[in-house]
Structure formats: structure tokens, C-alpha cells
Amino acid sequence: MAAMPAAAAAAVAAAAAPQQQLDTIQEGDHVIFDEHGEKKSIHAITRNGLAKVGKFRIGVGQLIGAPWGSTYKLAVDGSRLLPVTEHEPVLGPAVDEIDKDNATLVDANQRNQGLTSADIAAMAASGKAGEDIIAALCSNSATFEGKTEFAQEKYKRRKARKYTTSLSLRRPTSWGLCEVMFDKAPAGIWNLRPDSLSLLLSLANVAAHSRTLLLDNCQGLLAAACAERMCGHGVLCCVGTGGKAPALSGLRQLNLGQQQRAVVCMAQLTDVQQAAERLRARGEQQQQQEQQQQQEQQQQQQQVQANGSSQGQPAPGNKPAAAAADPAAAAPMAVDGEEDSAAAAAGGVTVTAGVPVAAAAAVAAVHEDEVLALYDNIAEDGSAEQEQPKKKKRRSSGRNQQQQQQQQQQQQQQQQGEEQRQPDPQEAAAAVGPADGKQPQQQQLEQQPEQQQQGQPEQQAAAEAGTRGSYTASPEQLESLLGQGFNSCIIAAPRLHTASILQQVLPLLAPSTPFVVFSPWQQPLAEAMAQLTASKAALMLQLQESWMRPYQVLPGRTHPLMNMTTGGTGGYILSGTTVAPAGPEPSGGQEQGSAGSRGGGRGGRRGGKRGRR
Amino acid sequence: MVLPQAATGPGPKLIQEGDLVVVYESYNAIKAVYVDKKGQYANRFGNFQHKDWVGQPYGSRVHCRPPGRGWVYLLAPTAELWTQVLRHRTQILYVADISLVIANLALTPGKVVLESGTGSGSLTHSLARAVAPHGHVHTFDFHQLRADEARAEFDRHGLTGLVTGGHRNIEEQGFPQELHGQADAVFLDLPGPWRVVPSAAACIRPGGNFCSFSPCIEQVQRTCEALDQHGFTDIRTLEVLLRTYEVSTETLHTNAAQTQQPNKQGKKRSRGAAAAAAAADEAAADAAAADAAAADGSEAAAAAAAADPGFLRQVLAKPCMDARGHTGYLTFARRFVAAVALDNGSGGSSDAEEEEDAGEQQAGVAAAADGEERQQHTDSAYESGAGI
């Protein structure tokens, strides 16, 4: 490890500690059984459980302690699992010349084989290994010698499948779990194929520290896959609709530890929408108060100047100034409102990304200082704090913002004598205890390894209650989450009409958030895409389908697989990125062409795609 | 800044000086821009000052300085967006292959992955995202300049500590000794990956994953042979492509016997916003329905004629004419893991084929009757004991 940077080495060591992935199968783990690379199934390893492997039922309890990824061969009579301790090459040698053909081959079925099934059974009972039986079958076959080498190998492989059973024990991954589900009951996951699943995860930018909004109607497969990628960092909000809780069984099947499952919280869509509404209302209220304060402050200042100067200015003279300031401040908001109502009237999709109204107005204001002032005034839980307009400052990093927030709060304490909540830093580096009752909930949303070990009482209680670390998010948590902004969104609920659900979900996302929608049907996605393109509610819209083909690679016999084991379709994916609500435009703004769909790269301007201004 | 970050405060992420911003002009024009307080961005619509961008939330639409009247959107970078805007020093991997690689290499936070060659760093960003925050990516390129440029990009994007970019000819020298036994996964995009298989075998821990991307089938064959000879199992090769669809609202004529008029109407209306047209269609349909309901014979006939304009408008999707035919074959394999003898050989009994169903149900009952907490909580139909 000498050449590895110290930081990386330390990081690797640290990774081992909280997320110790043991190399052997433990009781309670789920394991993917891979038979010959052909048949895959998933099983829970319990002391007394049974599982069907090949033609036999075996006890899965004996697998406890087996190394992950190892392979066992079933004895011919199915009585024992024999460990495969050395790797043997399976690809045959390259064959240059093929001198035989099947011109004289007569398929006489069972008469071509000298051994009877009774003979074979006797051999099996006498403890002969599977390989010996196959050799015997070959030597007793009338047609074997006449086959080409390729055909001989194929024959041997077929017999091997029948008389020996090879079982590999694989660690479940999102790909492997999806493969099993796609193979056994694809309808349950709406024909979501593993390559489509992987594409969803990549396009939605799901990783550690994501704050993902997920509508999963695929038996919890998406939830499990997201949690796997997040590994305890970030928040995964599993949204249920119509009063039904989202399915989360996939979380167990991936052997996710408690810390990894801790990112999950559940909520009904209506709860999330109501939390967003409360946030918006508070933002509006706060902005009104601020405007009032600005006016009052300007009046005060001017009075002070008037009193201080030798030429006393009449007090009423201040009012025009204040009045002038007021419409100016109100103007951006008014224009904003007009745009929204205009959009509504046109019948297009009106989308405001989850930005508090205060911030939306700030977008309209070009002056960065005012923007920073507004953000600093919003406390962690989204409640407004009355605050003076701030002095000019440079752009702040996140840390500076925290410091300024604290400074302001100290100032405010002095001025108004009110008790202020001290915001807790939410950065990963900080590992602190709760400052007040609200903080544990805050920290639960963003679990860090260090914080986890300090003990989250609610978290542990939830886990012990058997809900395994997934719990229903409280209204305050939802507000906090919406305040920070979801930065990733996956919708895999094909029964929900796409355009309608996007109309409800997109406003809950932060601006510049990638979102993906999966459906086995193309039409609803296409209609949603057309609607979003017209309303300019999202950018970089794309409707795609993933096509995957496996190959057989053997010396002299390489070709794509004959049977499309990967199925004719893996479903369709609509992807896009949200945008912030548009501010007022300078008069006579120029049309730059559609801000919507992306064609196949070179697709020119399609007729009729001039977006609305 | 390219990877998802923990929230440092309420409110959306704001653009800061030094940030990488993806500037969106239109669906054909997106560019990477590093925000500099003195920087300027110019396109054919106008001139933009970077300092106008600082403090705006990502996802904002910003306007250029007068007298220009243009605008652009400022998007937050992701690994996918970076792949689309990065400067191509080599042929790169796109999201279809990248997503398959990440999934099949089972890359999750904390894993250690080796990559050769770095190329333009397209895949490297996705590898970094997958193993962040406490994993590591060791990436190598045999071209000094490219290795340096990639390293500079990693640093600029906040990936220092997560990605180590080296200059090394992996085909000739293999991976460095100190990485032996350290890797959870290895990815190769090289002309002769079979030469690196022995070194990869030394680096990958048992149970780890291997992947090689090759455009040519001959390369794939040689790589598979090498994998088979050097302790890799479960060798599989596949290819993946994305088919993109273009969506438009089209006018289709319902009455073939009718004359040219509907055409003109259709064309005029297609110039308006699709949404507005849809709303107008609905209004017309409603009006027509109301008319028909209230009318007597002649009025009904007239209304019917007015209600059937001879065409309808539909949202239609059609595959794009521009389509990728092939990028490369992806070959995956697993590092062999030696099995150990198991404690008790409590094997099962052999069932004849006819007893399969009965046997399964018995297994299901037996398993469920154990009272295992997890079996009881099984609500998935895919596990044993649930009648597979």
C-alpha cells in the first residue's frame, strides 16, 4: 500500500470499519444461486431453510460460512455439496480445421445411446462422479465419434447440465436482483431489465449524498438499488401514492446494513406537497415582512439623516422615497406572478421548481448581495427569521454562509432580545450532538458514519421495531428536505399517468435536478415529453430505450446468443433536467429556439417546435 | 462539484466562483464553463458576464448584457453532463456503456477500482461518483499529456483524494506492484487487454470483478481466452445500445376524401404552441359536443360537419434517424473464489421431475414453518419458500 496516498489508504481503512463486508455468508443473508450461469434465483439463508437446486432440494443452512462467490458441485445423488477449490479453464482449445460434418448422422434418438437410464442410475448410486458418467455416456454413444469437436463439446455440456449441478453463491447486487426478478416474474417489475435499471440510476445521478425522490412500484427494487448506491449518505425519500405505503422488500434482499437502510424515509405524495406548500407560504410571508422592514428602515435612516443635518428636511418628504422603493421591490414579484398566471391560462404545465418564493424573487434581482441576504435569513427548518438587510459581501462558500447565519443571529439576539435557534452545521465533517430537540431529526436525514455511532435514539427504536431503519418522515423533516432540495428523482410507477405525475412531482424538485421516468409503454412518456417541451418546464428531455444483446464467445464459435434471453424490451426511459422558474425578461427577449427535446444529435429543427416565450 | 454534495444549508445550491457550470443554449449547444469573476461568455445572441451568474441558483435562466437579448440556462454538472460537454482527447464512453460498467462491476461507495486508459476521463467521473466518498479510483494513461490534463481536471472538479491519475503504460508494465490484491474491480479500455489480464488477476481480490471494453470481436476472443486461463469465471460478453426517439405533435388526416383545406389549417395550427393547440382542440371538441347535444336535425348535421375538421393532432414518437450502430463489446468476469468444505452435508432428497411442484410447496411450508422472522416478512414473490 506504500504508493497509495495516505488519504486514500486511511479512507479505505475507514471504509472497512463501519461497512465491514464479511467474506463469508452469514445467517440471514440473501444469496443469489447461480446454476451453471443459466438459472438464477435468490434465497434467504436460514438454519433450516430448503432450496431447490437442479433436481434436488438442499438445506441452505449448510451454506453459512461459505465464501461469497464460491462454487459448489452437487454430488450426483444430490446428497452433498462438494467445494470447487481450484479454477479449471472451461473454454476448449481453438479449432482450426473442421473435417467432419453431419451428412451421415441419423438421429435414432434413444437407440444411439448404449447405456440405459437404469445403468446411469446404478453408476450414480455407486458414487461415480458426474464427469465419469459423462465420459461413459460419450463412449457408449454411437454418434459421438462422428460429431465435430464443436458438437462433441456441446453434447458434453448438455450432459453436464443434466448430471452435474454446479452452484455459485453470489452476493446480491442491484443488477443480480433485477436479473432474477426479470427472469422469474418480469410483470412484477414492469419488465424493467437490468440495463434499463442501471441507466435509470446513472441518469438520475444517484450516489452518496444524493437527496433522491423516488416513486417505486417495482417491488422495492429501485429503492434497494438507490440505497445500495448511496451507502448511508444522503436521503432516499420513498413516496407512496393513494395512501399505500411504498414496497421496500428489496432493501432486505440486497443485504443492506442498518446504516445503509437509514437513508430511507417514507412519505405520501400529499404530505410532501403540503410541506412544499407550507414552505412556499412561509417564504411569501417572510418576504412581505422583509419588504415592510426595508421600507421602515429606509424611513428611519432618512429621518436620522434629516435630524442630523443642519437643514431639517420635512418628514413627509421621506415618504415618496419609501414609496418609490416599494414598487421597485414589488415589481419583480408581480412580473413573476404574471408569468405564472399566463402559463396557467395557456393550459401548459406550470412548474415552479422547489425554490421558496423569496428565492424566486431573488432570481429576478440581479444583485447577488440581495440573493445572499434572503438565503441567510431562512433557518434550517425553513422558518423565516426577521432580519435587517445585510451589508455588502463577496460570494460566500457554504461555510461562510453558516458563519454569517450565526453572526446575524447573534446580532438579532442583541437587537430584538429573542431567543434564536443555533443552526447545526450539516456538513459531513461535523460530528456533533443535537443542539435542541429538532436536531436529531435533522441528522437522521443525513446519516454520516461518525454520527451513526453516536446513537440516534429514534433510529434505533425504529430498527428494533422491525421496520429496519425505514420510517415515515415527519412534516418538519419533509420541510427541511424540500428546503435543501431534492437533487435526484426516479419515477418507476407506470400506472401513474406520466404527464400528470410529473406535473405534481417536478415542483418538488430543486432546479437543475435530473429526473427519470420509466415505463414499459412509450406513449405516456412521449405525451409527457411533448407537454414539458411546450411549457419549457424541463430541459434536455430525452426518450430512450436500452437494447442489450449477450454473446457466446468460444474459439471458432463466437456469435450473439440465439435466444434473446434479455427479452425483446427493457422498457422506455424519459429523462430531463428541471429548471428554475423564469424571472422577468428584458423587453423584446429573443427567441432562441426550443429549449426542449434533444433529438438524435443532428436532428434539425423540427417544424412546430417554437417554444413559448 | 461534479459529484452530489451534502447540503450545506437550506435553499438550492448557488453558483460560486470557480464552479464548473454547464451552459445550455439549445438542445444542440451545451458547453462547460468555469466561472471566473472576470470571465465572459459570448455566443451569437449576446455577451454574458460571469459575475452576473455568481449567487444564482443552478438551473436559472440568465440573460446577457444589453444590448443583446439572449439567454442561457446554467445547469449543475453531473457525470452524465460532463460526458456530453468534455473536450474529446480520445474516443469516449457514453452513458449506455458507462451505466452497464458501473452496475456489473458492482461499484458502490468504498470500493477500489483500477482503470486503464484514462482517455478523456469520461468514465472516470462516473467511477468516482460510484465509489465516493471513501473509495478510490486509480486511473492510468500511457500518454503523458493526456494523463496530466486528466489529473488537472480531476483536481479542478473536486475529485482530489478520490481519484489518482497516473502516467503508465499498463499493457507493457501491468499495474503497479503496490496495487496487487487491493482492487475490487478493474476496467480496461485498451488495444490489447489480454496482455493485462495476468496483472488484473493479481490486483483483483477474490470475488472482485473485471471488465474490458473492446470494439473488435477478435480482441474480445483473445481476452476471454486469457481470462479463462488466469483464474476468472463467469465470463460474459454483451453489447448495449440506446435507441432515442423524437417526439412531435403531428397532424393526421381523418377524411381522405376531403380537399386541400384541412392541410392549410393543419399547417397554420402546427406553428402555434403544441399546448395552445391542444387546448384549442379541446375547446373546439367541447363546443362541438355542446352543439350536437342541443341541436335538431339540420343544426346537428351542420355542427357535425364543423366538429369534424378532417384531421386530428397526435403526439407521436418515432426512432431518431441518427442512431449508434456499435460502440464496443463489454466483457465481464469474476475473480475465482475457492470454496471451503461445508459443515454438515444435510443435502436434500432427490425428486423426480413430476414431483417438482409438490416438492416446492413442501419446501415453502417447511421454510415458513421455521418461524424465521425474515421468512415471515417475505413479501417478495422471488424468494425461496414463496412458491417459485
List keywords for this structure.
A: about 625 residues, alpha/beta, five-stranded antiparallel beta sheet, disordered C terminus, B: about 400 residues, four-stranded antiparallel beta sheet, 14 strands, about 30% helix, about 25% strand, globular, TRM6 (chain A)
Helix-strand layout with pairing:
The complex is a heterodimer of chains A (613) and B (388).
Chain A: H1 6-16, E1 30-35, E2 39-44, E3 50-53, E4 56-59, E5 71-74, E6 81-83, H2 117-125, H3 130-139, H4 149-163, E7 165-170, H5 174-184, H6 194-203, E8 210-216, H7 221-230, E9 234-240, H8 249-253, H9 258-261, E10 264-268, H10 269-308, H11 318-346, H12 357-364, H13 368-377, H14 398-416, H15 439-445, H16 449-453, H17 457-467, E11 471-472, H18 475-484, E12 488-492, H19 498-505, E13 514-519, H20 522-535, E14 538-552, E15 559-560, E16 572-578
Parallel strand pairs in A: 8-9, 8-12, 9-10, 10-11, 12-13
Antiparallel strand pairs in A: 1-2, 1-7, 3-4, 5-6, 5-7, 13-16, 14-15, 14-16
Chain B: E1 20-26, E2 29-34, E3 40-43, E4 46-49, E5 61-63, E6 71-75, H1 79-85, H2 95-104, E7 112-116, H3 122-131, E8 136-141, H4 144-156, E9 163-167, H5 170-173, E10 183-188, H6 197-203, E11 204-214, H7 217-229, E12 232-253, H8 261-271, H9 274-294, H10 297-307, E13 311-319, E14 329-335, H11 356-369, H12 373-376
Helix pairs in contact in B: 1-3, 9-10
EC number (chain B): 2.1.1.220
Biased composition (Polar residues) (chain B): 253-264
Biased composition (Low complexity) (chain B): 360-369
